[in-house]
Amino acid sequence: MLKILVLFMFCFCLCLFASTNLRAGESDSARVTYYGGRSAPNFEMALNTETYRTEYRTIQVPYTERVCAPERRYRQECRTIPGERVCRTETRTTCQDRRICRPGPQGQPICTIQRVCQNVPVQVCQTLPPRTVCQNVPYDEMVCRDVTRYRTETRPVQVLDKRVNAHINYTVANHANLTSMDVEFQGDLRADQITLRAQDNGAPSAIPACVALARVNGQRQMNGDTLFITGQVDVALYLASQYRAIIEREAVLAPQNLGLVRIDFPYAVVPDLNEIGFYLRLNTVRGMAIDRPLNPSEYRLVKTQESAYLEISLAQLLGPYYGPLRGSSMTMELGVTLRPAGVVLNAHQFSNWAKGNFFNFILY
Prior knowledge:
single chain, mainly beta, Immunoglobulin-like, 3 domains, four-stranded antiparallel β-sheet, 5% helix
């Protein structure tokens, strides 16, 4: 099988902003089910989260340290002194009355009594009993204690960064014309990132019946510590069997006319011609003649009520080689890529968005 170059890739979801490291309160989700004609074409989703940031703050952290150091202590030491006889000399005062006489004027004696005192040394002795003598003697002792210390550390702290309030309005246009549908629309808000998706649960088999094509417009506005997100989602629901028929059903090669090749795509209802891309690989008897994407000016894609067809002028593409190659057999691979003009909310339900068509013919 020849290799097909895929011309277009698209996202399966709408992401307004990216964030990581989520916690409780940093995510929110909502679901609304659309049942076709039984549901209103307009509904809304309200989502709220809180995001956090990490700040580093310096704090004093206590810890216990064992500290040992010598400390001065005192202990009492006592000794017994035996008894002994102790003598000492004391001075004592002794007094006496003396008669003192002096001759009077006429020669007669005149006598008086006077008290005369003097200090006389006297030895005094006593016997002392045995006694105990105590005194405080200093000494150094090593003492260990648990001491509380403080060290400075920088630690991460989670603080509120901002609150996010998201309000999403949906408008659904049911181009599938199905009265009974079960399409679940889901909105997920993680931090300040919004993801929108859809799930078609109405098909009896695993193949979804609808393609949910959305055009999304959103605004973000910061007011204080609150981020307000508003979004408008315009959803168009198409039958998958028609919208994807150009890459799911077999294309049919119609008869040529002077190098003009026509390929029919039955039941292919393409909403927008710009949603289709083509890649042409043409192998002739002289080798590979064309192997590249086609520009819109090199083909004509016509959309009818229930189908579409493609016209390619090989005479124009081959140029001067067209004449020599007329009447020869060749192999053509036409790669068709479906590139939706908006976001396919349920793109995860489909396995591919491109297809290769192979034709063998004789160039006329």
